[in-house]
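ARCHIVE RECORD
Type: protein–small molecule complex
Small molecule: acetoacetyl-coenzyme A
Source of inputs: curated submission
Record status: active
Notes field left blank by submitter.
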Amino acid sequence: MAPMNDLLLTRTENRVAIVTLNRPDVLNALSVELMDRLIEAMEGFDRDPSIRVMVLTGGDKVFAAGADIADMAQASVVDMMQRNNLARWLRIKAIRKPIIAAVSGYCLGGGCELAMHCDIIIAAESAKFGQPEINIGVMPGAGGTQRLTRAIGKFKAMEVILNGRFLSAQEAFDAGLVTRVVTKEQCLAEAVRLAEQIAQRPPVALQLAKEAVLAADEMSLSAGLEYERKLFYSLFSTDDQKEGMKAFLEKRKATFQGR
Ligand code: CAA
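STRUCTURE (tokenized, with ligand):
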């Protein structure tokens, strides 16, 4: 475990990496430094063969209240373009291993966009999702207009983005943004439990399945189906496919090696 004053805490157990945003005084506002630490940690776990799934959380009070407003309050358009901080979000999009968000409390602006970069969202009943950038004179900039619209549809997304309305955990679940709603006490444990289950699956198949699902947002149906078919066939070059199917026929549990 990293020291408590660290911006980002990480620990690993049972092939799962648990990454915790840790700026509670400012509701985990995503400063440039915190984002750099987060991306470096996630890329490290993505390369580490002993890790198969990541869980991202902000603790049990807040997930993240967005980009750090103090960092950009005085910036000009040229400052923003030169810093180009939002470009680094592409590195989170490029993470190949599954990421589960465990969301309690506020999950706003860049915080909501960060949760939407994850693959599964477990929400505590206390979670509040929103894109309130409109209230501070701007709009979402790290994918909110695109990912929220794809997740919950144009008409609900418009109210959230144009009027800065927060969605409760239950509303977010009903709208399709959240995978499961649990109590605050269960939130991280439930995300870790799910991560540990997924970590038992064959890693290469996990990676390609994640890639194929994400491709659904980028491709036409016929191109996506063709892409899926090629990825499916390619898994027949892995030892894990041979082991998985052999174990099924022998009525035993498969042991996957990630090869
Ligand atoms: N950036 C910087 N500081 C923040 C912050 C943020 N996004 N959100 C909260 N804080 C700070 C507050 O300034 C406050 O600091 P002080 O104690 O030093 O005054 C501390 O966190 C606690 O916040 P509040 O006193 O405001 O707490 P509250 O319970 O009254 O309200 C809240 C909670 C509704 C979440 C409110 O803090 C809020 O509206 N925060 C901003 C939300 C927002 O606009 N997010 C979008 C940011 S822009 C963005 O994310 C762009 C993008 O797409 C990448």
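CURATOR ANNOTATION: The mean pLDDT is 96.
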